[in-house]
Amino acid sequence: MRPGRGPSRAPDGGRRSRSRRRRRPRPRRRRSRRRGLSAGWTRRHPASASAPADRGAGSRTTSVSSRLPRNGPGSGCDGEVRDDEPTPRVRQFDLPLPTPPDALRKGPLREGTFTSRLHDPRTAVVIGRWLGAALIVCFVTGLYSHVLQDPPTWLRDHLPTRPAGLYQFTQGLHVGTGIAAIPLLGAKLWTVYPRLFEWPPARSVRHALERLGILLLVASMLLELFTGLLNTLQWYVWPFPFRQTHFWLAWIALGGLLLHLAVKAPEIAAHWRRVRPGLTERRAYLTTVTLSVLAVTAVTAGQSVPWLRRLDLLAPRRPDIGPQGLPVNRTAAAAGTAQTPADWRLQVVGPRPYELTMDQLTALEQHDSDLPIACVEGWSASARWTGVRIRDLVARAGAPSTARLRITSLETDGAYGVTEMESAYARDPLTLLALRVNGEVLHADHGYPARIIAPGRPGVLQTKWVHRIEVIA
Known about the structure:
Number of strands: 10
Number of domains: 2
GO cellular component, one term: membrane
Strand order of the largest sheet: 2-1-10-5-6
Pfam family, one: Oxidored_molyb
Region (Disordered): 1-115
Protein name: Molybdopterin-dependent oxidoreductase
Keywords: Membrane, Transmembrane, Transmembrane helix
Radius of gyration: 38 Å
């Protein structure tokens, strides 16, 4: 009889029963599938990786990770690199750079130089939203203007001509948002400029590259906005072609902006919504920025928006000032066309070429079109134009309605002395070879003896002083 057991129990059945229970094999514990897991997995799931602690006094509580082979930091059982472990190439970007000596930390680099609470992320995010919206609208409308002036082959037959004032609207919006973006960019830079003087200037290679990207973004945006502003004034102080440079600068600025948003996305998301009542100083600052943007827009948008013309104090053009009540960008004297040749004839070149004198041209059926001239500088003005439909002149030359045209001006020195007209404009019934405006014969500065006028087309392509129309396709 075993010690500790009472004699009153049955000598056989009880012991056999207990013996059978003792000898009954315990259910075999299922082997954990985690044995083959990497050390990185067990670190991320410590509660699951460790053995249960309530198996009894004799239970082994060794964790799975302790049984894994150690092939080096961050390796699994086979020595593979952990998925969450940065590769050596990535780690190189996070290597700390040498800190400059403290003796160089002078002026704005000193700690505590900037004490204003307005240099905070929340203010930067709010202004950044406004600036981003203005830049996106400016980019899209500018891209549309570029496509109209230099359309890709697949789009030539599908350029929009309705509504007739579409380009008037988009280009006015382009210039307006571009001007509004200037004070917004200034406010944004004032908010974040203390970060330019943070110490150390570059903590790691990654941080240095990030700061170089911000430098590229700010430089391209400043150059883009100010060259665009000078273009509205027709003041070209640079040796490079404006339109091509403006186009590629826009793409560089857009790329820099998207990269900046990707890097700063966590910070932007954290301060996108206001989580506590805003500072009185911040509200006052944002109100000042808003009023500044509205004021700049109001005193310049009158060149595009008729009901704001009374406030048109700083706009480059007054749309109601000029010969015959229309503004002029390039005069006949500047183009060398002040004296029209006495033997002027309109040449129409096609399968059946012909020429027309002014008397013969005015004897053809005349049509009226109420269309705006919308210039790339942002100003626009509407007038009633009278002349011969381009599609009638082309049909008389035996060309199909899908023909593309080349328009040649008497102007000898100018970037737009020769232009091309896509078939979408050539076949439109509102497109005219205009001979009169508002009931009067064209003034020399407006293109006498004849000029092109078409719906939804940039003003630089509304060729003046026309003397030749050629079918090219």
